Amino acid sequence: MKIAVIKGGTRSGGNTDVLAEKAVQGFDAEHIYLQKYRIQPIEDLRHAQGGFRPVFR
């Protein structure tokens, strides 16, 4: 089984990286660095008039 490690720290090699590496030491892990991705704002419409738009139809 592989473990996904999602890193949201802003500094490579910073505390988040060090702690994440220690936490999964000895396991098969894939590290995903959020700073490498452009994440668009999300508008939460679940409680709005008209409600939630389903992803699948």
TrEMBL record:
Which organism is this entry from? Bacillus subtilis subsp. subtilis
Superkingdom, according to UniProt?
Answer: Bacteria
What is the name of the protein in this document? NADPH-dependent FMN reductase
